[in-house]
Structure formats: structure tokens, C-alpha cells
Amino acid sequence: MKFSIIAFFVCLSSIAFGQKNAAKEEWKPLFNGKNLDGWDIKIRGQNLNDNFGNTFRVEDGKMVVRYDQYDDFKQKYGHIFYKGDFSYYRVAVEYRFVGEQAPKGEGWAIRNSGIMVHGQPAQTMGKDQDFPASIEVQLLGGNSDGKKRTTCNLCTPGTNVVIDGKLRTQHCINSTSKTYDGDQWVKAEVLVLGDSLIQHFANGEKVLEYNKPQLGGGNVSGNDPSLIVDGKLLDHGSISLQSESHPVEFRKVEILNLKGCMDPKARNYKSYYVKADNTQCDYGKKK
Questions:
Q1: Per-residue pLDDT for 8 more than 70?
Q2: Where are the beta strands (DSSP E) in the chain?
């Protein structure tokens, strides 16, 4: 029975990415191209919304992560959270890595950022917490050295996942993506269906898939331990983008909600929804 449910969601996701009526999808921009309205910032060692060093800013219509005011990174890992709680959706970002890493950044953090999904709220992070308990879609850029370095990988700060029926507890798992060297733009997309299925896409190609995201494991410090209950399934949470010491730019951040009215008689019915919430149905007269 469980397998059939997952297969069902896989089928739905395939439809979602290849449906003919894609023009009807109502994508919502999370970044308005002008300012950081609607976002919260949490940088390790700083209070909520203390944007140390003007790390997160807007330049030329892009949300960017900069370190020109740092003389020592000092493991000041940062995250910018879109305000809200999300469960069934697709989130897409277009990103690129530029410039040089911040002084004294970790070697593994070169051309490294991430999209955090099913995360804890920004307000619950400890002042000295490094990463939110979450599922990280790890974004990596190639080092132009001829070596493979995949993107849209999986990392698990304070979490674990199930792959092929087995609980996977290692911190990071590589995707099957190509390597993207230089400062080229890459589109990363994540399909999130509660605790049933998460898929990663790099430039439209599916590169990783898993299910049953859940709390547990380590790789988070400075957190309130009572908030990480081992084995608790994650079917909703925050969305955030990372600052890990290498400058990165985001020119698009958008979301497609997949939960809502699934009654075709309602005027706000969407054929691409996969999770019903018919309390949202609007049966008023069409204008």
C-alpha cells in the first residue's frame, strides 16, 4: 500500500512537470526584485533580522549574498527565510556563484549554498545556531578543474530521509546532476509533497528523489534540542536560502502552491493541485 502511494505521487509529479496546461500554473514570486520585504534574516551569532555586514541585499534586481564587509567569516552561516509555512509546492530558484570566497571560509563551502525546505521557523533558531533543522537542497558550483561536482544534492542538518525504503543517516548525498562551472545561471527546482515525496531538479532534469523527511541525526549546533524529536516526520516548514561564505546571486525565487481547492465546481479550482483543502473553495459567482 505504501509503495502504491509513493508511485501515485511520482506519477503526479511527472504530470506536474510535463502537463500541457502549464500556462495556467499560478507561480508566485517570493522575491520582488526590489527589496527584501517578506523575508527574515538569521545569521549565526546575531539576533533575528540583524543583517551583519549587509550580507543579504538587493543589487541590479537580484537577491545577492555578499561578504565585502567581512574580514573573517568566523563561521557566520546565514539564512534568509521567506515568511510563511509551506507543505505541498514547487519552489524554483535561478542562481549563480560569483567572485571569491569570504576570508577564512571553510574549504568545503567554496561555491556552496542551498535551498532549505521543511525547515524550522527563523524565530525558533538559537542565537548561535549554525543551520536550521531542515532538508537542504545543496547548490554547488564546479571548480573548473575537470572534476565532477554535482548540484541539487541533499544535506540533512538535524534531519534524515528514506531512500528506496531505507533510512539514510549520512549528512550529504550527491545527486546525478551535471557539473556547472563558472558563473553560469542554473535553475534549481524542488517538488515537495508533504512527507510523501521530495524531488530535486537541475535545469529541468530530475536528479534526486526521496521520501519520509524526518527530524533526527546531528549536524546542527546551538539549537534548542527539544525542537528536534528523532523520527518525527516533516510535512511542512519554512523555506530559506543560505549564506555559507561564497558570494551567490539569485535572480528568481518563486513558488507554485500545490494544495488548495480540488472541487472542479469552485472558481478557484486548480487542476494541478495534488493535496485537497476544500475549506478554501470559493463558490461565488464568477466575475
A1: no
A2: 28-29, 39-43, 56-59, 62-65, 78-86, 88-97, 112-119, 135-140, 153-155, 159-163, 166-168, 172-173, 186-193, 197-202, 205-215, 237-243, 248-257, 259-260, 275-276
Q: How far apart are CA 211 and CA 222, in angstroms?
A: 27
Joined grid coordinates for residue 122: 527563523
**DSSP SS3 for 9:** helix
Place of cell 549587509: 54
Reported as a pLDDT band with limits 50, 70 and 90, residue 170 is very high
pLDDT at 189 > cutoff 60: yes
Maximum C-alpha span of the chain? 61
Q: Flag whether pLDDT at 10 surpasses 60.
A: no
Residue 111, classified by CB atoms within 10 Å of its CB into exposed (0-12), middle (13-18) or buried (19+), is: buried
What is the rounded CA–CA span in Å between residue 89 and residue 26? 11
CA distance 2 to 4: 5
Q: Which residues contact 142 (CB under 8 A, 6 or more apart)?
A: 111, 149, 179, 180, 181, 182
d(CA 223, CA 221) in angstroms, rounded, equals: 5
**What is the pTM (predicted TM-score) of this model?**
0.91
Q: pLDDT at position 218, please?
A: 86
Question: What digits encode the pLDDT tens for the residues 16-73?
Answer: 444 444 438 999 999 999 999 999 999 999 999 999 999 999 999 999 999 999 999 9
Q: DSSP readout, 199-248?
A: EEEETTEEEEEEEEEEE-S----SS-GGG--TT-B---EEEEEEESSS-E
The sheet carrying 153-155 orders its strands as 39-43, 78-86, 237-243, 112-119, 135-140, 153-155, 172-173
